[in-house]
Specification:
The chain has one domain. Helix content is 84%, strand content 0%. The chain is built from four helices and no strands. The protein starts with a helix and ends with a helix.
Length: 141
């Protein structure tokens, strides 16, 4: 059961990484795209953001359950790599929240607002990438 939980956790982090990259690509594709195409891309970004929120919740649930199942049931100590991973998942979560808040406040088509959103999405992507690497290292033993 522990291995299945670890696979689910790693898949969830990988999905968050892929969704962040997809979100970034959609942001770049929507640059200067007004009209119906721009509205369709905005709807797709919102939908992708909703799915990403669900995946991040799943990352937290599987990660904490994995931590409890591996370390809560024994006298083993938590590796320092896990604390680093936890930091990057926290950064991922905070950047995702800021990206969603910024996207909700920015009027459609505003270039400066899209640049801010791109910055937050880049932080989400990078922190998810680092978190998945640290997850592999921290749960390998």
């Amino acid at each position: 059961m522990h291995e299945i939980l670890r696979m689910a956790h790693l898949i969830a982090i990988a999905m968050a990484t892929g969704m962040a990259m997809s979100h970034y690509v959609m942001l770049r594709a929507s640059a200067g795209n007004d009209g119906e195409g721009g509205r369709a891309l905005a709807l797709a970004r919102r939908t992708l953001g909703d799915f990403t929120t669900m995946i991040i919740v799943f990352v937290w649930i599987t990660g904490l359950t994995l931590l409890w199942s591996q370390f809560g049931q024994s006298d083993r100590e938590v590796a320092a790599w896990f604390y680093a991973k936890l930091l990057f998942v926290g950064i991922l979560t905070a950047a995702h929240i800021m990206q969603r808040v910024t996207a909700a406040r920015v009027p459609a088509g505003q270039r400066e607002g899209r640049q801010k959103i791109e910055g937050w999405v880049s932080i989400v992507w990078l922190s998810a990438l680092i978190a998945i690497c640290l997850a592999v290292v921290s749960f390998s033993s």
